[in-house]
Each structure stands twice: as structure tokens, then as C-alpha cells.
Amino acid sequence: MINKIFYSFIISFLISIFFSSLNYNFFYEILFLATTTIFISFIYLIHKKYIPFFIKILIIISLAFLLGTFRYDFFEKNNKGEFDNLLHQKITQQFIINDIPEKKGYHTKLILKFKDANSQAISWVPNYPTYNYGDLIEIEGYLLKPKNFKNELGREFDYISYLKKEKIFYEIKTPNITFIESNHGNQIKEKLFNIKKIFLNKIKEQIPPPQSFLLGGILLGAKEDVGKELLDEFRKTGIIHIVVLSGYNLTLVADFFMKLFAFTGFTLSSIFGSMAIIFFAIMVGASATIIRASIMALLVIIAKITGRDSEIIKILFLTGFIMVLFNPMILVYDASFQLSFLATLGLLTLGKKMESYLKIIPKTFELRGILAATISTQIFVAPLLIYMMGEISIISPLVNILILILIPCTMFLGLLLILFSFISTTFSSLLAFLLFIILSYDLFITGFFAKIPISVLQLNFKFLEIIFIYLSFIIIFFFYKKSQKKL
After folding, report:
1. How far apart are CA 417 and CA 160, in angstroms?
2. pTM over 0.85
3. Alpha-carbon distances, residue 301 vs 226, 307, 375 (angstroms)
4. Could you give the CA distance from residue 281 to residue 327 in angstroms, rounded to a whole number?
5. Which end of the chain is more exposed for a tag (fewer CB within 10 A), N or C?
6. What DSSP string runs through 428-465?
7. What is the phi/psi pair of residue 44, to 5°?
8. Which residue(s) pair with 144 in the sheet?
């Protein structure tokens, strides 16, 4: 009964946020439903001294819908740009660079916070001169509102809402930049980003490209140097997640550290695994996306420690609820949140069961576990990926096995490489050589399978079809659980 109330409330809240994000507002309809059900329950209470369970559920659903509608409306009203009066004008303003500049091709993306204001803007500038997080700069340029555009599938991408979730309301065109001074960002973030920059430079000093770019992506989530061609190969083979430091990636890292310290006992090794997740999250800059992925990964560790997957699934939904309550726009406009949540849900619901179906696969080098985890996560994220990208990699499970088996070791050796690059040139050179071989293997496997003509299956799912698929997942899971209880 408590579970039904819990899931009814959270799922109803998320549905309300979902429809509010798409500009469907059911506030008055839900208010009417809530008022009616409360009135009916009051009648029941007076005459029959109890309230039927289905009416309690209706009240919970109604209140959850009202909360979702109210929360999204409040977020919308309190997250608006402060400089609309300057739109389509040439402005001269001071800005603080509010995130790590991201190179893409011949241009660099800057996230700019207006000095002495909360609004942010995005601007594309030449790669040179370079800028850093926390730099105070003066920009002369045209202030515009971002515009939506159509993606490769012909669907309109809501670029305005995608930026708005990060409180980015403006775009600055043809900027003329004057550097003023550094150290105007958050001091903690600035130190973390500087550490990340030093680590990336140490990798580039020891290992040549493109292997160094790949290690930077795997270890620090720095995919801007990886290059479009290589990213396309990762996408075709279904391993793009290895360079974005996803919740699944962090789970693999934690699992590796748990096995490395298995001799200390299960509890201590689990603590080492959890510490590895936290350490890597801090090392890559502790952005909101990384924090969300880290929380998802920690939930998987907790599930392994307690062995109570159903309770951890409940905590996962509660975590998702809190994240969406804090920022309602991530539910629809943050692909990272969606994929991390679905991948974690896949691991928790299907991971163990899938492993029991793969007894033919040996446990050596964790082959069975990696394949089970890959299939479990792919089942849950594949429909959404197909909807977003219009394609699916049919060779993804095979390539994931061939590459993921070495990813935790790669990250561990990469960390050692960075640490020893400050201590011993000889030992760091040996580590660099080993990493070069492993990374070259990764690149070879990726390139080889990406060239197979049938590696990618073109599909074009409609929005309602995706909803139907995930509803089917819920129904299948519900009936499976029901049948398990009868056994």
C-alpha cells in the first residue's frame, strides 16, 4: 500500500512536470479533481467512517499534479532574463566566464554570466586567444534571444528551453572581447577546473594524440579534443558514453575499485568504490551533470551492499523527484539526466536477472557482468537514443564487451600516470606506454566496427511510440513482479 502511494505520487508529479514542460497546463482540471475527491472522501468519512483506497490514491495523484504544475510555473516565473530591454541592440557589458570554455572545431563556446546579475548568455568566439573559467571580460556585441532549430531528423529542437534549464537566456553575436582580469569565478570551482586543466596537460605531455584525447575524454570527460570524426565512430558503435563520464561509467570505476580492494572485506571495498566515484566527480569539476551521474552510480553501489534492489529503485525515484523538484526543466530538456536515470534503472531492475540468463558467458575478466550490464542499460536507453538520434548501433553489445573490459583499468592507470608525472619520469613513461597500447586497441576496435556497413540501423521513432514503449516496460515489470510474488 505504501509503495503504491509512493510511486503514485512521484510518477504523477513527474507526469505533471512533463506536460507542463510541453506547455500543457491542467491546473484547473486537476484542482477540480482534487476538490471533488476530497469532498467525496469527506462524505465517506462521515457516513462510513473510512476512505476507500482508490479515493486516497486519487487525492495523492491530484496533489502531486498540482505540486508539479505549481513548481514548474514558479520556476518559469522566476527564471527570466533581466536584459530583454537590450535585445537586438549592440551592447557593451562586462561578463564572467561561468564554465570551462569548450572548443568545437574552429570556435570556442563561452558561457557568460552578466556581472552583478544572475542571467547568462552563450557566445561562440575564435579559439585564439584562449580564455579560462572565472575570467572577467568586456564584450561588445549584439544581444539576441536563442532560436530553436530543426535537427537532422527534421524535428524542431527546443534550443531555447535547453539553454534555459541552465539559466542561459541570451546569445551574443559578433563579440569583440577585451580581457580585464582573472579569478572572478567561484573559488572552489576555479581550483577544481585548474586541477582538471593541469591533469589534461599532463596527459598530453605523456601520450600523443589521438590517444591522449581519448584518455582525456575517458578519465576527465573532456570530449572537446576528441574530434567529430572519432565521436561519430563512438556513436556508430554505441560507446559514446565512455567519453562523457556517465553514471554507468562511474559504476564501472567503482566496481573496479571494489574488486581491487576486495581483500579488505566487502564493507571496506564498497567504501573504496564510493570514494572513487566522489573523487572522480570532484576531479572533473563537479558540474551539475556529473553530480547527478555520481548519485546514480552511488545508488548502484548501495544496492550491491544491501542486496535490496527494490528499495534502491524507490530511492532512485525519490532522487529523481528531488532533482526535478530543484530544476523542473531537466526532466524534458536534459538528455544526460534522462539517460543516467534510465541506465541506472536498467541496471537495478534487469542486471542480476540478465546475468542469470548468460551462464554460457564465462565470468573471467567480468565478461558476463559487463555483457549483462550493457544489455540491461541498452534495453532501457535504446528507445530514447533512437528517438533523439534516429539510429541505433546493432553491434553495441559486442563493442562494449571488447572495450569496457579495459575501461576501469584505463582510468586507474590514467590516474596513476597523472600522479607519477609529478614524481617519477621513468615510471610515468612506463605507464604512458601501457596506456598508449590500451588506447590504441580501443581506437582500432572502434574504427574497425564503425566501418561495417550494417553497424548502424536507421530508425525514426515518433514521440507517442516512445511513450508506448516505456509504458510497455512499466506494464511488463509490474506483471513480472506480480508473478514473482505468487511463486
Report:
1. 41
2. no
3. 30, 10, 19
4. 20
5. C
6. HHHHHHHHHHHHHHHHHHHHHHHTSTTSEEE----HHH
7. -60, -40
8. 171
